[in-house]
């Protein structure tokens, strides 16, 4: 069965994604390759767990609460399964959210990554309910040591709001959307652009 692994970033001043198909790694300009546009979770609610390893600049309790709040803002049913059994692990069938070190930003020039979402897609061949491809696993990694001015609950929530959007399949959008690939502020509310992109995936219901 063919699968695709895509890494999607929120950068503080730029963004990039990596698509992995087998052993090859390709840097792309958009968060999802064109062939994966419209991919989403086929069944709801989606389950996730929180990795409570030491690290980060907020308490484990606050991190969990802000993650739940970010998912709630998108209006999709999700279930917090509690603490993950292990750290964030690729292709283990578990959707994990936790602190870590995002891959180095493309382009340099002082670009910092606030977080990234690593997503595995599978081609849907039957019973697709309008989605050509379906997300089968997503992990969110939040930078544990971003620039000092981003080390607060407001900016953490903003980053989680962006990354939970990618977790659900929402691509990068033009500014001023929360899903814009780069930001110099800590947006805390979804825009009409964000909601329209989400509704296009899940039918507005």
Description:
With 205 residues, the chain is α/β, with parallel strands linked by helices. The chain has a single domain (3-195), classed as Collagenase (Catalytic Domain), CATH 3.40.390. The chain contains 3 helices and 8 strands; from the N terminus they run E-E-E-E-H-E-E-E-E-H-H. Helix 1 (60-74) packs across helix 2. The radius of gyration is 16 Å and the shape is globular.
Please give the CATH class: Alpha Beta
The number of helical runs is 3
**Broad shape:** globular
Low-confidence runs (pLDDT<50, min 5 residues)? 1-6, 13-31, 105-109
What fraction of residues sit in β-strands?
A: 25-35%
Could you tell me how far the N terminus lies from the C terminus, measured between alpha carbons in angstroms? 31 Å
Query: Rg to the nearest angstrom?
Result: 16 Å
Task: Give the integer mean of the pLDDT values.
Answer: 80
Question: What's the helical proportion of residues?
Answer: 10-25%
Total beta-strand segments: 8
**Structural class of the helices, strands and pairings?**
alpha/beta
Number of separate structural domains: 1
């Amino acid at each position: 069965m063919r699968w695709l692994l895509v890494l999607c970033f929120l950068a503080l001043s730029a963004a990039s994604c990596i698509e992995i198909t087998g052993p090859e790694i390709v840097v792309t300009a958009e968060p999802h390759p064109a062939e994966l546009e419209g991919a989403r979770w086929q069944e709801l609610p989606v389950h996730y767990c929180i990795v409570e390893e030491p690290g980060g600049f907020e308490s484990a309790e606050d991190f969990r609460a802000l993650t739940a709040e970010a998912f709630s803002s998108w209006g999709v049913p999700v279930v917090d399964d509690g603490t993950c059994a292990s750290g964030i692990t690729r292709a283990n069938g578990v959707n994990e959210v936790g602190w870590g070190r995002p891959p180095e930003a493309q382009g340099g020039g002082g670009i910092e990554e606030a977080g990234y979402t690593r997503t595995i897609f599978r081609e849907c061949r039957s019973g697709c309910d309008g989605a050509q491809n379906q997300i089968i696993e997503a992990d969110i990694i939040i930078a544990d040591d971003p620039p000092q001015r981003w080390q607060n609950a407001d900016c953490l929530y903003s980053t989680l709001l962006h990354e939970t959007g990618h977790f659900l399949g929402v691509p990068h959008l033009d500014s001023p959307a929360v899903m814009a690939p780069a930001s110099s502020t800590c947006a805390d509310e979804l825009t009409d652009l964000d909601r329209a992109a989400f509704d296009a995936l899940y039918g507005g219901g």
